[in-house]
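Re: the 391-residue chain
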Amino acid sequence: MNKKILVSLSVIAAVAAIAIGGTVAYFSDVETSPGNTFTAGTIDLAVNDKNPLDTAVVTITDAKPSEKIEPIAVKLSNVGTNAGVVDLHIVPGTPSEGIDSEPECAAECGTSAAWDNSAKKCDRTSYSCWQENICTIIDYDYCYDNNDNGVCDEGDMKGYFQPSDRIILGQLDKGENTRWLWLSYHLRDTGVPQNEYQGDTCTFDIEFSLEQIRENQLPLRDDAGHVNGWVWYGPAASVNMSVYAGGLIPGCYQITLEGKGVCTGTDKNLAAGVEGHTANFDAGYYKGGGYTGGLLNDCDSSTGWGVYNPNYAMVDSMGNLSTNFIIKTDGNYPSLPTGDYKDVRMVVKQINAGQVGCPGLGQAPVWNCGKAGTDCYIGKLWTGYDINFSL
């Protein structure tokens, strides 16, 4: 059989196979899922039941230095479909002269001759005068109803802030969840006559923001479950941790990372942190029952979860804490071994009420924590076991 015949037979066989394959019967079934949709959730904040907010929430007239002004109540409501973090920001204000008075004119121009009594106006054209910025001597206070009891009390986040500060208030759950915020504004008493500010006006914007809770952003809760702070962390290899909390007793606090299990790889890595097993309890194993029994040098299947204390921070007189630190592996404090850290929680715990100084901050503490018979779980906040990172 020559080559041409072989080629012809091959072609005929291929065509036959195609023809047969096209006519073979088989069973089948097709199901169609109709009308599939993908819908984005919403983050939506209403202020004083207004959405959008188009009016001023603060209008104060006739303010005087050192005068106590009744706080202004602001209602914040999450009307979206997702929980979010609400924060407060005041945009630096713009001053204006407002109402002229003779004492103000004399203070700003250096002479009472600049006052035109017949026109009831200061002659700033004929005299060398200056305008003081009243916006710079306004003190801003706030109190956020973290515990949702309708009053500003010790359990709430409160404090002073300045324009350009962005104050993280707390979590607003979805579904018309509401919290109250109280704002107070007053003229600072500088200890000297302040006539140059008489009649002046400061006009400013207040921004209320509600932002989606992001990955690697965790709430700090108290024993009652109220959100009193937040933790941010990341990225991997050099883990930057930022902690912000309020409603705490003033004093020195220790920030601790804890493993969830006993003797897991995470527990062992945490316990192996720098200065492990020292009197400062910087790293090691706790044997349970609160922080009353001290550290163990080792653990077994029933005792000893790993703990690591990477930072100290002072809570100010208003009960607020703000700090950040980086966990590394380069041998500089604070450092941890390389590896994966799974199911870790953060505890913000008080060392001693009224603490004057904090270790690690160049101050000598009055230490009353971790010793036999004492308990560090005082004035504490917790995250869940939701912190995961790799070094």
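Residues 45-212 form one domain.
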